[in-house]
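Sanity check

After download, print the first record. It should look like this:
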Amino acid sequence: MSETYISASLRREIIERAGNCCEYCKLSQDDNFFTFHIDHIISTKHNGKTETDNLCLSCPNCNLAKGSDIAGADPESGKATFLYNPRKQRWLDHFELGNDKIVGNTPEGQLTVQLLQFNNKERVVERTSLIKLGRYPC
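Expected structure tokens:
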């Protein structure tokens, strides 16, 4: 088995812990056509381990935008900043929902909003519809 193999039991544990919700953008897997991914918060490329404390549930949009990134330049200061880590940080400490957009309140939040493209047009349209239906955030 490769280092990145995730067993069915570990996959179930991550999904249950997340409440079937993307731990980055708070979209429910029930509201997405595609199966959510189990994301290595710190990618194996950066020596991240395939263990509970380094895994989270991620919608395809967030996971594909994040890739193996773990950090970037803070959009305001330009300083090196780590991305939001759902295992070590609370979502509400870094983000808030402002109308239909997700707003980053910290450097980590701002970088994550930008890098994971939380507020691109298609995602905002989807989020607006889900808010009206009372299905967002999960």
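If your output differs, re-run the checksum step. Summary of this record's structure: The mean pLDDT is 95.
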